[in-house]
Every structure is written in structure tokens, then in C-alpha cells.
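Hello again,

I reread your note about wanting to compare the complex against the isolated chains. To keep things tidy I'm splitting this into two emails, and this first one only covers the full assembly. Below are the input lines as submitted, including protein chains and any nucleic acid or small-molecule components. They are followed by the predicted structure of everything together. The single-chain runs will come separately.
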Amino acid sequence: MTVLDANAPGLTIEAIRAAHERIRDKIHRTPLLRSELLDERSGLQLHFKCENLQQGGAFKARGATNAVYLLSAQEAARGVVTHSSGNHGAALARAARLRDIPAYIVMPDNAPAAKLAAVRRYGGIINLCQPTLAAREAAARELLQTTGAAFIHPYDDLRVMAGQGTSALEILEDVPGLDAILCPVGGGGNLAGVAVAAKSVKPTIRVIGVEPAGADDAARSFRSRHIEPMAQPNTIADGLRASLGAKPFAEILRHVDDIVTVSEASIVNAMRTLWEELRVIVEPSGAVAYAALVENAWSPPPNARVALLLTGGNLDLDRLPW
Amino acid sequence: MTVLDANAPGLTIEAIRAAHERIRDKIHRTPLLRSELLDERSGLQLHFKCENLQQGGAFKARGATNAVYLLSAQEAARGVVTHSSGNHGAALARAARLRDIPAYIVMPDNAPAAKLAAVRRYGGIINLCQPTLAAREAAARELLQTTGAAFIHPYDDLRVMAGQGTSALEILEDVPGLDAILCPVGGGGNLAGVAVAAKSVKPTIRVIGVEPAGADDAARSFRSRHIEPMAQPNTIADGLRASLGAKPFAEILRHVDDIVTVSEASIVNAMRTLWEELRVIVEPSGAVAYAALVENAWSPPPNARVALLLTGGNLDLDRLPW
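Full-complex prediction:
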């Protein structure tokens, strides 16, 4: 149960704007796709922000790149460390390679081969450990001591959160009249960054978090105003199983309008519709925002202009959930 | 065996530029995606023009929309007719609906349900016929007589070819330093439009057509300089089974540098790589340009800037070829 410190320094729009300048030539400006059919079906004007088409196939490139390039030359020379079984590890390895510094990625020894390959592709140095949080943290601690490298948390880090918020700046440049943004929430770094950026640029906009009902710690925490840990997440959306971080949570409480949950069936259904109608590959975690519209978990007024963050596209094509 | 008429009016860059102005607000300006990994693998700078993300999931929206909006009000009021078992029928139905006129689409009675649904979705009036060319042409003729509608051929039509060429204008606006364009060839309308546009804007650019070895009429015709019909096309790339049209062929002979062929295995392999690395859904016909690079059917100099047209993304996700 974390108590909020009202005086703690938070995430600022200035930090997000500076992040955008810093990473602009190192990431893709991802397209905002439209679909006449999905507009007709929903009675809304939908804008799909395709972070699945981002470098490395996920929005994680934004935060990791910002964090790596914020290090001083001296800090950077010793490299970076993180623990991650997902997209952040690969994104950090890529950012480190761009800066020509080592990246040490602690991963559980039962991580899927595809995730290991993604980190190796970018030259990340993988440290395997047992698949427990204690083992992961111990391995990271040991690496930090032996290398003197900088730890870059996947989401509970203001530098990472600032980077993630840059997608909202791009969305609002492309669609200034936007009414709402739907954003997946796992550890909360992306939702926090997006909310600070969007509300600063356009205070009247609505920012809604979406998470699987089987990993609903953010929705529960949002209502109780305390971090309620997720004991046994049970969802196909592997990118959203993490428990909310304290730094993102503080921003979420200040800036997010609501957090809604979606069923597993809706997530699979949404993935499939996005594949068939938008013709892009979205992983389960990336499809929850559209799932929220499909099951009316959140209902905007007719013809509202709504952006949906499709946050990632990394999945095993031999194991599709249909 | 068609003999070329050197005096026949051909496709002009002015017609393509006018088409671009005409259709600009009725189609998507599709993104040109990059991939660090595919650049590294190929030793080239690759730019993927995502016409699979076009309205209706294929480049066909460009030509059909241009043709429909070139009709006079009087002509348009009587509607449009085509025969098509593929993406052109749906694209024509969509363009007609935008202009609020009827579209009569002749389709074989064994057409896949998904193709019929795509035409119906846009309000197209489907006329089923037996699955032979004779039956198709007879049905179209009868419709033309009874309705007085205008016939819009899928590719052997200068208005359609002009529309297809507009993608090359967008590519060269985005990447003025481009060295080459790889473009699939079936009936030839797209390759002809792209070649006229690209060579007019940048005479030093190389334009290469790509077709399946199992439907190699364009490659054979290109060498013999006569249209050599395709008797029994045998390829997974259903959009490229059509025989070359006379009007496209005239432009292809004037402006295209080479036409190369690719194997079925390479096409499937390319689809899969584009799914996994670019995270977009490409149909077999849309993957042949990348297949040509994979199997070295055409080898540009190292670091060349090459655009590849991913022409469509319509396929049955329950019947993937792997």
C-alpha cells in the first residue's frame, strides 16, 4: 500500500517535449491509421496509433531510448541494466547499441525463444536467472555492482515515462481536435506518460486506461487510490501482467479519467478484427483499447474522435489464439 | 500476339498528377515503413509502401476512384460495371458509393465468401455468373446494355492506370533520393502507372516488375515484346494470375527496366517475414517484390535505396499458407 507523496517531483510536459526532440531521429514516427468500416461499426471517428509498427515492434523504444540518451557520457560508458521478459529488454538493448554502450538484460530462464532472440538481435548481453522476482532482482543487483551500469526500470522511472508520453504528442499534432485517448495499462508507464502529455496539450481531452479483467490491479488501485498488487495475473495479454509502479500511479491518479477492464474473449476478438480490417499485427496487450470499444467498457458520445494506442505487435505467429 | 501501335495515345505524367489531386482526399496516403533488421539483412535501404493499408486493403482504390470521378455527371448517373474476382470489384464499389452511384460487379459463382462480402460491404450490386471468361464477359455486356453504365476494366484502362501511378508520386515525395522501385505485375496496370510516374519524376530511377514464376506471362512478353497469354497460371498469388493488358504492356515496354520472376516458396517466405518483421499483413501478391530480394532475382548495388510496393493485404486468416 503506497502512500502518495504530494511533494514528490512528477512527470512534466517539458520533460516529454524534451524527450521527443531527443529521440525523434532514433525512432519511427508511427502512422495513425483509419478504417471506414470500424468507424461505421462504432459510430466514432477512430485513429489507431500503430506503435506495433515502432522500432522493435512496441512503444517501449520511446522510453528506453530517452533513458539511455539522458545518461552522461561517463554514466553511459558503464552500460545499462534491466530485468524484463518482454519488449523493454529488446528496446533497451537497441537503444544501447545506438549509443554503442553495453546493455545487460536479466531474463528468466523460461523466457520464450523469440524474446531471447529479440534481445540478442540488438547485441544485448543476456543474464539468465530463475523465473522468480527475487532471483531477477538479485541478478540485477549483482550486475549493477560488478559493472557500475545504470538501472533502467521498465516503467517505474520518470525518464522512461517521459519517452512513452511522446506518442501522445504525435497523436495530437496529427489530430488536434481529438476527444479521447484509450491506452493499455500494465506497469503504468505508458498510460502515465500519455496522460501527462495529452492533458497538458489539451486539458479537455479524456484519457482512459484499459486493462484485462484478469490483471485488474490498475483499475482496483485507481478506485481505492492505493496500489493494490496483482497476485496472480491471468490473461493472454502478457505485456499487461506487471503490477503498477509508484511513479506512474501518482500521475495516473492526477491525470487519468478512468480505467476500465476487458474480457479475454474481447481481447482475442479485437486482435482478430484489427488484423482483418486494419491489416496490422497486434499482440494481445496491444488490442485491449479496441476491445474496450467492442464490449462497451467505455462509451464515448457519438462521432467522438478517439485515438487508440496499439502498443505492440510481437507475438508468435505459430501460436495464434484462434 | 498484339502489335504495338506507336501512335496510340499513352499514359502521361500529367494524367497521373491530375489523378493524385482528384483522389487525394478519398484514399489514404499510405505509410512507407522501414525496418532496421531487413535493411541489415539485405545490405540495402528498404522503403515498404504499404498499399495493404490502403482503403479496402489494396492499391486498387487509387485507379477505381480516379476512373469513377473522371466520369461526367451524366455518365456517372448510370453507374459503373466491372468483372472482377478480386480487389478491383470492392474498390470500384467503394468509389461508386462515395459518388453515390450504382456499381454492378460481375463475379464468378465460385468466388470466395470474403470477396463477395467485401463488394457487398460497399453496397456493390453483385451479378453472379459461371466461372469462365466467356460467361463473365457476356454478363458484363448484358449489364452494360440494360443499364447504360460505364465499363471500368481492372487494368486495361488509362484512367485506372493513371490512378495506380499515384503511389509512385507519394514514394518519390517521401524519398527523393530513391534508386529503384520493385512492383508486382499481374494485368500490368499498376506497374505501368508506377513506371510512367517514377521515370517522369526521376528518369534515372530503375523500375523492376516482379511476378510469380507460375504466372510469368509478363516476363515472357517483356522479352519477346509481344503479349504472350497465360494459359494456366499456377500460383498462390491470386491477384497476379491475370494476363497482361495491351495498354499497360505498351507503357511497360517503354518504361520498365526488367521483369523478374519468383518461386512460390519465396512468396510464402516473404509474406511470413513481412508479417514478423514489419508486422503488417500482406497477401501473396503483395509479397512478391520482397520475395525478389530474398531470392536475388534482382540484385541492386549495396546500400541502394529501394522502394517495394506491398500491394494488398486481403486474405483469409484461417487459411494461412504455413
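For quick reference: The radius of gyration of chain A is 18 Å.

B.
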